[in-house]
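Aim 2 progress update. The chain analyzed this quarter is reproduced below.
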Amino acid sequence: MVPAADRNRREFHHGGLRRARETAEGVFAESRPRLDGMKPAKDVNTAAVTAVGLIGGWLAARESGVRPLGGVLLGLAGVWSARTWYARHGLGGAAALSALYLAAFGLSHPLAKRIGAWPSVLTVTAVASGAAHLASDAEK
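Predicted structure tokens:
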């Protein structure tokens, strides 16, 4: 026979585990599609993220002297935007807008030789962010 003190401790322990599991399942079920603390993909303003990626990436590379640092910022902003474009428009829409984002980055280099670095970055950012706004953000 199990003493009453041990029986109560075991029941409390098992009951506590069951409550913790039920609470965890409820919490995780509500937030499963997104990382904790992040906005849902469909709520992100991709025009702003695109601008941060293009301008911020260029500025980070220029001011630090470490070009890959700018590439990391550009890439992170691109992935964050593509997540939203995929959630809103599926694979085709995400691919098209991502291609435009990358094309803007690529075209900024030859354009910079003609009009200068800042005007080039601002021009391609205006085009890419404007397209992101019109094709994706204005609908929400």
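The radius of gyration is 24 Å. DSSP finds four helices and no strands in the chain. These observations will guide the mutagenesis experiments scheduled for the next reporting period.
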